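Researcher: Next sequence.
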Amino acid sequence: YRIFSRVNVESYTITGLPSATGFWTEELEQSDTPEVEQVVRDGQQYASAVVRRVALFPTGPGEKVLDPLTLEARVRVRRSRDLFGDALDPFSRLDPGGLFGSLIPVTVATRPVAIEVVEPPSAGRPAGFDGHVGPLTVSTSIDRTDVGANEAVTFTVTYAGSGNLRAIPAPPLEFPPELEVFPPEPRVEVGEGEESIRGTRSFDYVVIPRVAGEFELPGVETASYDPRRGTYTTSSAPPIPLPVSGGSGGPTLGGRIPSSVDAIREEIRFIHIGTPSFLRVGDSPFGGPAFWIVLILPMVAALMALGVRGHLERLDGDVAYARNRRAGRAAKKRLAGARAVADQDARAFYAEVSKALTGFIADKSNLAEAGLVRDELREIQQRRGLSEELLEEVLELLDECDRQRFAPGAGPAPDSTEILDRARRLMADLDRGLS
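Model: Next structure:
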């Protein structure tokens, strides 16, 4: 996004970001002090500067519309000499002015941009193609070769290339049954190439062989479409042999077996040997527990009533407080709606889960839900001190929902229970960080 001006722009603020519906977005590095250059456009000379840089990756074919970006600039002007000016240029009606002019706000917006997204050709499409566009290679590695039984080894699958690397899913792998394999930990490192986003996406699997023997970690194959060449390419990594020695501990069970002492401690309780106290018939109840309960209970109830009243008054007068308090209830309602349609409409299910998560974050942060994009989420993470791991999990779930929403075909959501569990867990973690 560039700004073009024929007046002195003192400062500017981006007041509205495009929602970028139908796209994954990758924010690119942007200088805090953009470099201004002189350009000629439509026969007029302008000062121009880049105000925002973002890479867009469409999630499916068809016509996509990129909403306008809105920017408010403060410009220094004197008096307008031409009351009519150029109706298409909000700056043209303003005199360039001098040092003693006035600062006035001017709001400008980009035009909506229609983008026609075409599907990669079906001719020559490999069987393993999952939609990645851009050159891509795959490799595998292990962090150690000397492994004993019940010792952990990290098996890493790394994709390297260009395109929307964050959307690459974990590969479907089959490991020998003697190997205990934990869910992969994804990592991504991206940067700018000459004309594209380049980097790596890795998946780290912790593998624990439970018995000695000769094993083999699976090979990986991937396919991608290179739009520059107009061809499909494939890349593969061969299996990795994994010899496992006997180790020192032998086969182990996954859980902890309590000792007999632990079991006895849990099943047997000590006999109460203290002398009980009794109240004689006719003794005064004043001073006893019942007396104090009856005495204190009304005061506690009055304090609770005052607290409830203050809470209700604040809900009516403080919008941020009200949104924060009601965020969880609204999110649960949306997740319930998602669960209700999971067996009939996968797209509606993923849309509701995405709205529940973004709406929860927006309510907790008192921001507009519409247009809550990746850079705003990162700003929230940095401002509120959320962990980078939590942010990555949130972005991965939102990306997965977007991918499934725009995937071809219809029907039930196959992994609805897992998606709902992930959304609830992330909301619980976010609630602790954003409250």
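Model: The mean pLDDT is 79. The longest strand covers residues 197-209.
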